[in-house]
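Case study: DUF2071 domain-containing protein.
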Amino acid sequence: MVTLPVMYQSWSHITFLHWRFPAALIQSLLPPGLTAERHDGSAWVGLTPFLMEDVRPPVVPALPWLSRFPETNVRTYVHDEQGRGGLWFLSLDAARLPAVAAGRAGYWLPYYWSAMSVRVDADRVAYRCRRHGRAGISGDVDVEIGEPVAPEALTDFLTERYRLFTVVAGRLATAEVEHPRWSLRRARVTALDQNLLQAAGLSADAAPIAHTSEGVRVRVGMWRWC
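Here is what the predicted structure looks like once written out:
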């Protein structure tokens, strides 16, 4: 529960693409104090493009240009030494330079400034990402939205995460995130051309499992030392 949120957001038109990886490989990418979580014997890495909307601190109205922009995250699933599960971000791309600066300075997260778009057309969503100053690093995803998905162990493991971890000044830190449960639908990937995972040190050749959601409203707490 986030008792004192420092940021309000909406994550809209989100797609979750997930791949299995050996847990030892993912563990090699984590800082001390975090352990890669497994489901069905594997660690998992997600590529999650979405539209960030209504971004604002408490008691401040959302600003039209600054508060609405695409974002794409590469993330994996971990727990700390207290057994608390959460997210570890391998990269975050955002289309607003002030948001990138705030994410890096405020939460010490690996944000990158990118040219991005999210286009929604009935039951199809197209995401585009080109990282500025990093020639050739991009992430393009096209999906078709399918039928609703009932909650199950795997989708809960991959999506129902309410904590992030980061390293601030060399020390492990965490922040809580609060939002309703995801209402998920199956997705069919019609086009995928990305090397964001490769830029994070991973190779994903297999087809991902895919889900989509219209989104959730989110409250984010400030980080604190673990």
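For the exam, be able to explain this: The chain has one domain: 5-225.
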